[in-house]
Amino acid sequence: MTETVIDTISASLARLTPPSCGSLTVAYSGGVDSTVLLYAAKAFASAHQIALSACYIHHGLSTNATAWQQHCADVCQQLDVVFEAKSVSVTPTSRKSTEALARDARYAALFAHCKQRHAALLLGQHQDDQLETILLQLKRGAGPKGLAAMPEYQVRQDVAIIRPMLSLSRKEIEAAATHLALPWIEDESNADTAYDRNFLRQDIIPLLQSRWPLISETAARSAALCAEQQELVENAATEKLAAMSKGADRLDGAKLAALPLRWQRAVLRQWFAGHGMAAPSQAQLEQVTLQLTAKADAQPQVTVNDVVIRRFQDDLFWTRNTRSAEAISKQIIYAGTVTIVEETGVRLLISDSEEHGTYQLEPVSLNEKVKLQGRGSSKPIKQWMKALGIPPWQRQPAALLLLEQTPVACVYPAGVLRLHALPPSVQVHAS
Asked: How many CA atoms within 13 Å lie on the side-chain side of 375?
């Protein structure tokens, strides 16, 4: 049994480790799973001349954490493995569980360690962990992507993640650790069934396995099938997304609306993935697709975290919900040595020139009438912006750039309307 477990891990590492990978890091907690993984990884790394390190994350959530850290350091010293401990802080909030916050902090620290060492990250999750993940995803009402659970290999934040133990059960891993007399620790929080994963592990999965002994194995097979189907859907959705993209932040609304609803949602999920964000909920996706059929003069928008999806001229726009609505403060600018002035929504660069004078930024109403350079008539600024196809959310705050009290440009968050020819010494940019 012991040889089978170690051989299985070594075979997985040989199959999953990128050929160019010269360094591996084990996420080492001191528990039985990561201990067996560390032991197998040490043998593999030595045989293939690959650098190996172990990283322990100190969450500070248990009074035993410091003792566990020392245990991990001692084991690594015995195995001649480079060891590093990283401390993270977890502040409970009402919007996210402590378990989720600890997981996010742990991965952030592990990714930082791996990037510093140019290492792939080895995780000790196994077949029973996979079953827990599938059941949790079912509880959340997940689709194929969620039910695909944990992949053997993935890349997150430019770090390769390898799970070489997904085909092994907890019993097999514990038996191997006992046979090899490997020292490991038990986290007392694993017995706390207030956490969903522990509730499944302690109360539900043993009952399922007593009825269906192979359920972890068959559930893992279902997860692999879901992952395969999800990959096909994502590839097709990516092709459709490319056909309707007008840049990274704009989608052709007519082309998107022409697709069946299920493909609209698939394309939108890929749009979010392309921006490095998790897919919105089903309810949020429905709100986004409803924008496509809103009245022509409507300005619908859907907020997802700090992103606002807006519709304008039938297209969907990806925008950030970070700009303040307050007016641009008045700023007096004197020509002379190169000067960069930062304001809300505007950046001015004024260089040395004989065109000396006083420049001034003043907030302006979009109802103010102006005449654009080369245009014969005066119109309200908002009418010029509408005619030029400037989306409403990019129009404010706006300010007039004055040279000796004469308006020479209207500056707004996405650009500049030139009212008169500017001296060569003045460059005006939207920030």
From this structure: 14
